[in-house]
Amino acid sequence: MALGSCSLMWFRKGLRIHDNPALEYAAKSSDFVYPVFVIDPHYMKPDPNAFSPGSSLAGLNRIRFLIESLVDLDSNLKKLGSRLLVLKGEPGEILIRCLEQWNVKKLCFEYDTEPYYQAIDVRVKDYACSAGIEVFSPVSHTLFNPADIIQKNGGKPPLSYQSFLKVAGQPSWASSPLSTSLSSLPPVGAYGNCEISEVPSVKELGYEDNGQDELTPFRGGESEALKRLRDSLSDGEWVANFEKPKGDPSAFLKPATTVLSPYLKFGCLSSRYFYQCLQDLYKNVKKHTSPPVSLAGQLLWRDFFYTMAFGTPNFDQMKGNRICKQIPWNSNEELLAAWREARTGYPWIDAIMVQLQKWGWMHHLARHCVACFLTRGDLFVHWEKGRDVFGRLLIDSDWAINNGNWLWLSCSSFFYQYNRIYSPISFGKKYDPNGKFVRHFLPILKDMPKEYIYEPWTAPLNIQAKAKCIVGKDYPRPVVLHDSASKECKRRLAEAYALNKELNGLVSEEDLHSLR
Ligand code: FAD
Questions:
Q1: Is 251 in the pocket of ligand 1 (CB under 6 A)?
Q2: Distance between CA atoms of residues 29 and 62, nearest Å
Q3: 398 annotated among ligand-binding-site residues
Q4: Distance between CA 238 and CA 241 in Å, rounded?
Q5: What is the ipTM of this complex?
Q6: Could you say which residues bind FAD here (predicted)?
């Protein structure tokens, strides 16, 4: 036990030094600060039965990214005279043990709206209160406090992006500069018999080096995040003219968007700092794009989904979710597996799914295409199944944003134009007529002539043989025929919508809730 006033800084997301109000508060008038990260087996334990390397909840790309982020955080803390203390176990239990043993007077951690953390936090806060420990848990993962927006909107989250913008206005902190750096930190106190380790390697966590032929090009950590932000913002014209729907989803050597999502997910980059940099840049250009399509507009989408997720019970499921259309999705495991394992026979869809497996990141419109294909476009598989696959494999996997976008893409909520379906053939072709993206992620098709690259089953047999890719042997035939499958999907959605409407007209919102 250290003598003097001790604070414990509990890192979960928010893996950064810049714009970190919890860390700043922990450092203020403290003799010692314990910067702690708890490796949570629930999230990190290898699952030998998973279809690709990783735990049951996170693919290896994300685990590796997290470890890289922790190594970088540790190194940045060391520059300030501190270090990261890594512990392992159920986070709530470990935290309470540390608070007991280290005579902590202040517990600081970033507020988290995700249900998993909310449950842990209640336990830890209850203990801290009973032990007379001050708790400081600021909102700094998002631009706004979702609870404030909900309160301003009369107790409900605003259901559309435009109404969200109206209610939200400017973030309260935006008028004064954010404090972005600490120059030093109080030392770490003695830690007695608590089992502290350095940041483990992925191998030490129990993962084999899987010899994947292509690793994700994105490295974790605050240093990398700030560099990537600087690089993105260095082209002021690109930022000022950014229009999300105009980006090319097939661009992979130089993606059409910032690829800052993995850094925002873990809080290696502060969304508030990012937003402030954008506002500064906008002030210095003659004209710039606006939400929803601008880059600042993208950060506001993020806050929109956080607010919706926070204010909607059962946001992550169809049942009991009052904003979700009730649709009789199927649970066809074979079709789901073909989609997940990039075996649908549609090269555009399969290449995107390989990019997900190998890189843990895809362009937003590419995500649109595969999510639409799995659900309302072709396979009619439940959006919750696709959400789980993305949830595991994306490096930027984010509870609020992932669920929100799956609700959107499956026409279960927010967006209802189910007649607008992405073609798994012509959509990709429009951006990438030569099929560079497909050839990169599906090398079996690398010699297929461009006329057939999006529909290899239509190539004459001699051409397939010349390209060393026989459809049905080297590459699968389409799992469904898009024209008939998409018609059937539309018919089923029309039926489900009619039924939802009937229910909506017949019963009160509360009754409707209990029917689900
Ligand atoms: P940029 O265009 O550079 O945008 C900057 C930041 O704005 C992003 O990093 C992200 O934090 C935010 N943002 C951009 N688009 C959206 C959006 N539609 N909704 C909310 N925030 C947005 N994004 C995630 O971060 N995590 C997820 O788990 C996730 N799941 C998705 C699932 C589906 C089915 C779909 C269609 C989209 C999903 N997205 C998710 C949203 C979006 O595709 C990614 O945020 C974006 O592609 C990340 O790339 P970027 O950083 O280059 O984005």
A1: no
A2: 36
A3: yes
A4: 5
A5: 0.99
A6: 257-261, 298-305, 396-398
| Residue located nearest, by CA, to atom 21 of ligand 1 | 302
User: Model's pTM, two decimal places?
Assistant: 0.96
Region 138-147: mean pLDDT is 97
Is the shortest distance between the CB of 305 and ligand 1 below 6 Å?
Answer: yes
Averaged over 61-79, what is the pLDDT?
A: 97
260 lines ligand 1 (CB under 6 A): yes
Annotated binding-site residue? 47: no
pLDDT of 173: 83
**Which of 282, 198, 271, 280 is CA-nearest to residue 241?**
282
260 CA → ligand 1 middle, Å: 9
Distance CA 214, CA 2 (A): 47
Q: For residue range 308-362, what is the model confidence (pLDDT) as tens digits?
A: 999 999 999 999 999 999 999 999 999 999 999 999 999 999 999 999 999 999 9
Q: What angle do CA 306, 125, 200 make, to 5 degrees?
A: 75
Between the CA of 364 and the centroid of ligand 1 the distance, in Å, is 6
Q: Is the CB–ligand 1 distance for residue 398 below 6 Å? A: yes
Mean pLDDT of 251-269: 97
Confidence (pLDDT) at 266 = 98
